[in-house]
Amino acid sequence: MASPTGLQQLHFVLIPLMCPGHLIPMVDMARLLVEHGVMVTLITTPLNAIRFEAIINRDIQSGLPIRILKLRFPCVEAGLPEGCENMDALPSPKLSKNFFDAARVLQQPIEKFLEETSPAPNCIISDRYLPWTIYTASKIGIPRLAFDGTSCFAFMCSYNIKSSRIHEKVSDSEYFVVPGLPDRIEVTKAQLPGTLNAGSVTFKDMLDEIKAADEASYGLVFNSFQELEERYVEECRKVKGDKVWCVGPVSLCNKDNIDKGQRGNKTSIDEKECLKWLNSWPSKSVVYACLGTLGCMSPLQLIELGLALEASKRPFIWVIRDGVNSNEFEKLFYEEGLERRTKDIGLIIRGWAPQVLILSHPAIGGFLTHCGWNSILEGVSAGLPMMTWPLLAEQFFNEQFVLRILRIGEKVGASIVMNRGEEKQCGVMVKREGIRKAIQMVMDEEEGKEKKKRAKELGEMANKALEGGESSYRNIKLLIEDILNQSKSKKKGGQRVTHEEGFNKASGITSSLSFMKFTLRLF
Q1: Which of 95, 176, 307, 458 is the most buried (most CB within 10 A)?
Q2: At what angle do helices 373-381 and 20-35 cross, to 10 degrees?
Q3: Of the candidates 351, 291, 324, 320, which has an alpha carbon nearest to the alpha carbon of residue 424?
Q4: What are the pLDDT digits (tens) for 18-51?
Q5: What's the pLDDT score for residue 7?
Q6: Bridge-partner residues for 517, per DSSP?
Q7: Which domains does the chain have, with CATH numbers?
Q8: What is the pLDDT of residues 174-209, one digit of tens each?
Q9: Angle, alpha carbons 436-441-443 (nearest 5°)
Q10: 377 with 353: CB under 8 angstroms?
C-alpha cells in the first residue's frame, strides 16, 4: 500500500492493559493501523507477547512495519506470583492493586524507549486504565489517545451516571433511568460496574486519575463502528469534541483461519478438530456458550447452565474457563452425568477457545454471552443473535444495548453483578429454565425470526465498516491524518503538545501529588 508523503516515518506506540479483553483488541488495532502505512510498536511483557507474537511475526514477514517491545513485569517485587503478567492469572481479585502498581513501574523503561527509538514516536494510544501514560506523553511531547475497550453507549452510561450522581440516591435493587441518553435505559445500582461503585479509597483514587487522564487526553479511540451506535458516538463527541474515533470491529483484521485460531491465548482444543465437529451440523443449528475469561460462577451455577444446554435439545459448544473451583465442578459434572448424556450433541472446551473462528462458522446460530464488549462485537460481526448473561464490569450496560438498542437478544435473567471471589456465596442466581427459555426464544425458527434478521443486517454493516471508503476505514485514515498534522505543526515550531497542566487542572491535584507518589521503586 502506497503511503502519503511523510507517513512512512509516522510512528504509533500502543500500550495495552495486560488483560485479555483489553490486550486482544489493541493488538488487532495495531494490525489495522499498519495496513494503512504507519509504523506501530506494541509494548507489553514477555508472557503476554507469547499470546499474539505468532500472528505479529507473520505480519512482519509480509513486510508490515510492526514490532513488539517486551518489558520485564515486576511480579514478585509487587507481591504477585512469578509469571503473573496478566489479570487473568491473578489468584485473587484482592491482588488487583498490586498488579496496577507493578504496571506503573513500566513507565520509566517505556519513557527511555520512547526517547531513544527511531523513528521518533508521534503519539501514544494507551488503555484508559493506565492513566500514568498521560505523563509519559507529556514528557515526550506527543499526544496521548485513550483507548476505551467498551462501547460509546457504555461510556456515556457511565459518564452520565457519574456526572449526575443519580446512583447515590437509590437503593441497590431500585431501577433508575440513566439520565441524558437518547434512549430510555434502566438499571439498578447492583448492576453498575466497579468504576461507579468504588469499593475502597485506593480504587477511588485510581478512578479519579483515570477520569483526569481522559479529560487531558488528546482524544478517545473506540472498538466500535459508526452505524452500530451513531447517536452515542455523537454523544461522546459532545464530551470530547471531534477527537473521537471508532475504528472497529477490530477483530475483522483476522481474515484467515490461522489468525482466528491463534488470536489471544493458546487454544485448549485442536482447531481442525473443532472445525470438523462444526462441519457435522446444519447451518445456524449450534448454540455457542462462553462467559468470558474473568467472570466466575459457582460450580452449582455452572451445572445449572449445563443442564439448560442439555434441556434445549440443540447441539452446543460450551466453553468452561479455568477456575479455582474446577475440581468441585468436575465432581458435580460427572455425578450429574452431563458429559455422558450430551457427548453426541455437545462439544465442551476447557480453557481458551478460538472464539472468532467458532463464531464465524456457518453452523453457529446463537451466542450465549457474558456481554463483554469484545464478545458482543464479535457476535455482531458474525451476524448472530444472543442470549445475554452479564456478570461484571459494564456488562449490564452492554446487555441493555443488545436488548433495547440493537434488538437482537434475549436475557437469561441475571440481575446483579457477580464479582470475582463472591461467586460461591451467590450459589445459583440464574435458573436452568430461564436459560433454556432464552435459548428457545433466540434459536427457534419462528420466535427468533426478527432477531436473526436484524442480527444478519448488523453483521453485514459490521463487515462493511472496515472496507475502503466506509466508516471505520475512514476513521482510521482521519486519525492518522490528524496525528500527521500534529507532527507537522510540532516540526514547524508550533506549540508543544503537553498534557500535564491540563491533567493537574482536571484532577485538582498538584505536581507534588502526581502519579509518581504511587509508583513503586522496585528496580
Answers
A1: 458
A2: 50
A3: 324
A4: 999 999 999 999 999 999 999 999 999 999 999 9
A5: 61
A6: none
A7: 7-71+106-151+214-248+466-505 (3.40.50.2000), 266-464 (3.40.50.2000)
A8: 999 999 999 999 999 999 998 887 655 557 788 889
A9: 90
A10: no
